[in-house]
Amino acid sequence: MDHLQGVVLSGNSPQRAVPGLGRVVPGLGRAVPGLLLVGLVVVVPAVVLTTYAFRDTTFLGVGPGPTLDQFRKLVDQPTFWNLTPRTIGVGLIVGSVVTLLSFVMAYGIRFRFSRRAGRRIFAVVIAAGIASFLVRIFAWGTVLNANGLVNQVLMKLGIIDNPFEPLFYSPLAVVITMVYLYLPIGIAIMFGALQDIDQFSVEAGRDLGAGRWRIALQLVAPQAVGAITTCLVLTTVLASADYVTPQLVGGTKGIMIGVAIRDRALSGADLPGAAATTIAFLLALAVVLAVVALLIRVCRLLVRPLAPIANRAATRAARHAPRWMERVSLSRAATILLAFYLILPTVVVFVFSFNSARTLGLPWQGFTTRWYPDVVSRPGFGESLRTSLLVAIVASAAATMVGGAMASAATRTGPRTRRLIQAAALLPFVVPGILIGLGLMIAADASPMVPGYSMTVVAHVVLLLPVVMAVLLTRLMSLNPEFVPAARDLGARQTVAFRTITFPLILPSVLAAFVLCFTISMDEVFVTVFTIGSSTTLPIWILSQARVGFDPGLNALGVMLVTATVVLPLVIYGVARLGTRLLGHRGPAESEGAELS
Amino acid sequence: MSDATSQGAHSGTLRARGVSKCFGPHRVLDNVDLEVAPGEFFTLLGPSGCGKTTLLRIIAGLETSDSGSILIGDNDITREPPERRPFNMVFQGYALFPHMSVGDNVGYGLRVAGVRNAEIQRRVTRALDVVDLPQVRDRDIGDLSGGQRQRVALARALINEPIVLLLDEPLGALDLQLRKRLQEELRAMQQRVGTTFIYVTHDQEEALSMSDRIAVMRAGQFAQIGSPEEVYRTPRTPYVAHFIGETNLLAGTLVDAGESVQVRLAEGLVVQASAPNGHGQVGDAVTVAVRPEHVRFVAPSEPGRDGRIEQVTYLGSVRRYRIVLGDGAEIRVTQSADEPAKSGDVRLSITDRAAVALAADES
Q1: Is residue A366 packed enough to be buried (19+ CB in 10 Å), middle (13-18) or exposed (0-12)?
Q2: Do B117 and A504 count as a contact with CB atoms less than 8 A apart?
Q3: Given CB atoms, is B169 within the 8 Å cutoff of chain A?
Q4: B125: closest CA of chain A, how far (Å)
Q5: Do domains B2-238 and B246-359 have the same CATH topology?
């Protein structure tokens, strides 16, 4: 550890000899705290979790190992055989639908709208993505349940007589809700990839006579295969490991394996059993995803022989297509529809938080604001809010610093080390929360650590690193690399150059990263459930409220949460940005100059 | 650093001794020696990748050399960080700080040195006057034109009164007309303030028009160092001859190595040449470098070489001919455009003493 300490402390000056790790991989210095944290929170717990899967459960806790007892028991459990295929199935469906819709929408945003309009739509997507996770789930309660909007409207129209049961507390509800939840992530991945595609290559395709479909499928999609695979795999993993959505909207038929793992760990206190289930499930998922990846590869190989057939079909279809279809852009229409899909549930939550009816959904019984004071005065609300704020502020501040140092290290190294740091920082985003959370809980069980506030803060810092890295690395890479040399050439020491040049220039991004972190931390459930111990954060409290059943109070709470996590930070960010803009040109020289004149 | 500036202002020769630098397997600078006298306008000229910018950055302290040393006067500053060297730099893209006004950019060097505010104001005003930009002090960097940015960068680098000003292709981003004007201004200003300039460029015309001396660089070494006239009139290698201006290289044999060097070209034409590298024995094979403007059209009765005009290009002040000689060699000739255009078969001769004889095996 001592030599690592040296690296951390001397990370400031590239000219000084850097002992230890920094010498092995030059420039790694500042990334070390972040890398250590990722190891401590993601890698080590995963390893400990694996060892627990090979130990006994006794009534005193955990027996010695190694043994295959847990897996033997698992094989005998019908629930495991039920839940695993269902979970992976739902995950795959969600992943596929999200990937398809993401491609369509990202394509629309990139190629079918002006730059400005595209940026606005993308902002809507991102806002929908960072709005409270739980609130976005509740919204579907109001939309889908027996009294919900869809059923009531269908009944009014006379299409159905009784509420369509499979719409709520069902696997269908889980799929609909999850597609909605994970769509913003998919779009972000896909849009990033499509932005790298040269506009001119598309125009060249046009010029050479390619129709729309041909451009989308033969020019754009092949260039985005990497993103499509990433999107499919990532959203499938996230959806499969989601244990909150199935619990809230799945009913008994929609339960997924994450719920069983969590119950086993938290209610049953059976850590080895939970660990074994997790390992077995992840192995099954890995096998399925490997097959999927293989299929994608096979599809790519088939593209060449099949292309002429597809071309002929496309040409024929184009010849017979009615005239009006030429003028309507499908991806444009789909993009607009999807944007509404992303916004509407939040609007529904907002509107129905003022419905005086006790049940969720229609009929509308009159305007009231009573749900707001009602939910705030419930026992536990204040305390959990305080805990959440504390965790969010401390974790966001720490994550911004640690992640900022990591990003700064990444800009100073060669491309290979940079990729290594980026991969490490991305790990907490890619590894499912249930694995990180359960791993931490088990690691705590195996060590003197105790779940609670501190552990949650550390976990959150690591979960936030990918966000900070993404925001700050982009900004740092966009800075002119000559700024710091120029400052030093003019006589500024390294630290002065950072304080007067780099920091003021990245400050807006630092603020943005902090705000984004705050939003995510305030909303985090997947890991917090395992690490918070006997304490409660706001999302955990809401989850406990929702377990009793949805009620309109949750809509009111949702409105407050979305306001707090999206609107408020945006306002703070806007004000802060304005402030730095105004302050930016008020260096001592100029303010003095103003006084003199 | 302000100490070093005030004490050693305008004094001390800048020396680089045996400077080498590798980037991975690629040797960018190979044992380079350099001496620049106080007040000199010294240009490092070469194609991209020849090591000229790296050498400049090593002098500035922004890059460390693998071996060798940098001295100013008798002080070895090889280990000094950039902020403690009495040099300042005008960067290629100017690297003006976008979050500061023009005045703050120019005054930055004084502010980090802890100079009093009133003093900063005074000197910023003066620096902006020197670069002829008194009106823009409170403007944003983003609101400036390319030429204005260039001047601001210059003012920012000059305000610390460096012993040596380092300029890394400072006019590269500007359009031709502006570049020409600023070349004259830069040269005039350098003579006015008397600071040593080390100027990096790949533009040979720029180098010729501004410099006291030029170092022509190739693959991390100096191919030739000399005044503009020296490197143009008596290039020491075909490379220098090619890089500075246009040149024709003709094969020949040394026939007289006495007082005047004489070379016999193919078809028996004998030219008088200078031999800057000294000359070998009579009978040695040599290469003769001749500028296009030193090739003349002569009457068919006079001695010369025959050729056929393949292409004529009108360039305003001159016409440029591409001519294929009897043995298949190509030669380029320029002639004042006031003369009538020629075509078809012609006979060519070479102005006496304008050609340079170089050993044939040098490349």
Answers
A1: exposed
A2: no
A3: no
A4: 11
A5: no
The superfamily CATH assigns to domain B246-359 is Nucleic acid-binding proteins (2.40.50.140)
Q: Dump strand ranges (E) for chain B.
A: 14-23, 26-36, 41-45, 67-72, 75-76, 87-90, 164-168, 196-201, 213-218, 221-226, 248-257, 261-265, 270-274, 285-290, 295-298, 305-314, 318-325, 330-336, 345-350, 355-359
Q: Which helix (H) or strand (E) holds B56?
A: helix B52-60
Q: What's the DSSP call for residue B84?
A: G
CATH classification of B2-238 is 3.20.20.70, yes or no?
no
pLDDT in tens, chain A (597 residues): 333 333 333 333 333 333 444 445 556 778 888 888 888 888 888 888 888 777 777 766 677 767 777 777 877 887 778 888 888 888 999 999 999 898 888 888 887 777 788 888 888 888 788 777 888 887 887 777 766 777 777 777 777 777 676 677 788 888 988 999 898 888 888 888 888 777 777 777 666 766 666 667 667 777 777 888 888 888 998 888 888 888 888 777 778 888 888 888 788 778 888 888 888 888 888 999 899 888 888 877 776 676 667 667 767 766 666 666 556 667 788 888 888 888 888 888 888 878 777 766 666 777 777 778 887 888 888 888 888 889 999 999 999 999 998 888 888 888 888 888 888 888 888 888 888 888 888 888 877 888 888 888 988 998 899 989 988 888 888 888 899 999 999 999 988 998 999 998 888 888 888 888 888 888 888 888 888 888 888 888 888 887 766 677 888 888 888 887 777 767 776 776 676 666 544 433 333 333 332
The C-alpha of A489 sits at a distance from chain B's nearest C-alpha, in angstroms, of: 5
Question: For the CA atoms of chain B, what is the radius of gyration?
Answer: 24
Query: What residue ranges define each of the domains in chain A, with the CATH number in brackets?
Result: 1-52+374-587 (1.10.3720.10), 78-313+328-368 (1.10.3720.10)
| ipTM confidence | 0.82
The identity of residue A328, as a single letter, is V
**Cα–Cα distance measured from residue B146 to residue B152, given in angstroms and rounded to the nearest whole number:** 10
**How far is it, in rounded angstroms, from Cα B257 to Cα B235?**
19
* Contact between chains at B156 and A593 (C-beta distance less than 8 A): no
- Of B153, B119, B118, whose CA–CA distance to B136 is shortest? B153
